[in-house]
């Protein structure tokens, strides 16, 4: 059995992203959320994810934009992020070994935690605003 190599090139990013999102699309728990939101725009989404992870992990600045806003109003909670992380870690560990692979898992964990926090923050703010407006 050959030992996995680290993430070092755009081809590695594409393998990671394609494998990960292939699993996500089929996942019984989070697949429908992604498939409903992205619909027939998967090629566009995957291209954006290649550029995002290429920028984050390989320091080749090909991604521009703000990743959070499209996620702001999704019907998701911590359990959804936990499942996303399970699939991500499993995918990275199956395909790669090394410092950049470890960095990918750390960055994904930090992003999931921050997105979860911000989604809850905006959800709470919306609820408070609705309460104030109803008085």
From TrEMBL:
Q: Which Pfam families match?
A: Bac_globin (PF01152)
Keywords associated with the record: Heme, Iron, Metal-binding, Transport
Do the record's keywords include Cell inner membrane? no
> Highest taxon of the source?
Bacteria
> Per the record's keyword annotation, is Transport included, yes or no?
yes
**CDD domains on file:** TrHb3_P (cd08916)
Mind telling me which SUPFAM superfamilies this protein's record contains? Globin-like (SSF46458)
Q: Which GO terms describe its molecular function?
A: heme binding; metal ion binding; oxygen binding
Tell me what this protein is called: Hemoglobin
Native species: Flavobacterium frigoris (strain PS1)
């Amino acid at each position: 059995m050959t030992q996995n190599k680290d993430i070092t090139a755009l081809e590695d990013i594409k393998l990671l992203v394609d494998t990960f999102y292939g699993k996500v699309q089929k996942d019984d728990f989070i697949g429908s959320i992604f498939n409903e939101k992205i619909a027939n725009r998967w090629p566009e989404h995957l291209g954006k994810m290649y550029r995002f992870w290429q920028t984050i992990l390989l320091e080749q600045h090909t991604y521009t934009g703000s990743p959070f806003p499209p996620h702001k109003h999704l019907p998701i909670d911590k359990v959804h992020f936990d499942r996303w992380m399970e699939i991500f870690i499993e995918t990275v560990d199956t395909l790669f070994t090394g410092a950049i692979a470890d960095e990918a898992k750390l960055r994904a964990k930090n992003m999931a935690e921050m997105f979860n926090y911000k989604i809850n923050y905006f959800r709470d703010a919306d609820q408070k605003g609705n309460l104030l407006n109803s008085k």
